Amino acid sequence: MTTTPTREITLFINEDGGIMFVHDDEVAESLDTGIPPLIRRASHVEPTTDGKWSVDVAPIAGSPTPMVIGTWPSRNAALCAEVEWVRDFLAGPQEAFRG
């Protein structure tokens, strides 16, 4: 018997009915209402000079300067840390998304 791994997608619905989530093409397609979505970059995952990968969450945190949350030995590990941090951030107070 073959099983398909499951994915966890968390949707955050704010007070005005807006839906926020870490982008996933299948979820975005299923939420298509005919109104163009507002897509914002959450962070940057970039290689470092020493061969590691860093995650800078300044875009979603609204910081004008880099906000590096750490470095990881592989890109995949950095991407996983990025998604975890962004989900935690979205689960917090929504004041960050106003203005």
The average pLDDT value, as a whole number, equals: 85
Structural class, please? alpha+beta
> With helices defined by DSSP (H or I, 4 residues minimum), what is the helix count?
3
| N-end to C-end Cα span | 51 Å
Element-level helix/strand string: EEHEEHEH
Report the strand count. Answer: 5
The value of Rg in angstroms is 15 Å
How do the strands of the widest beta sheet line up side by side?
3-4-5
Question: How can the largest sheet be summarized?
Answer: 3 strands, antiparallel
When the domains are counted, the total is 1
Describe the protein in words:
This protein is of the alpha+beta class and 99 residues long. It has one domain (12-97). The protein contains three helices and five strands; from the N terminus they run ββαββαβα. The protein has helices spanning 25-30, 58-61, 75-90, and strands spanning 12-13, 19-20, 44-47, 53-56, 68-72. A three-stranded antiparallel β-sheet has the order 3-4-5, with helices on one face. A two-stranded antiparallel sheet has the order 1-2. Strand 1 (12-13) and strand 2 (19-20) form a beta hairpin. The N and C termini lie far apart (51 Å). The mean pLDDT is 85.
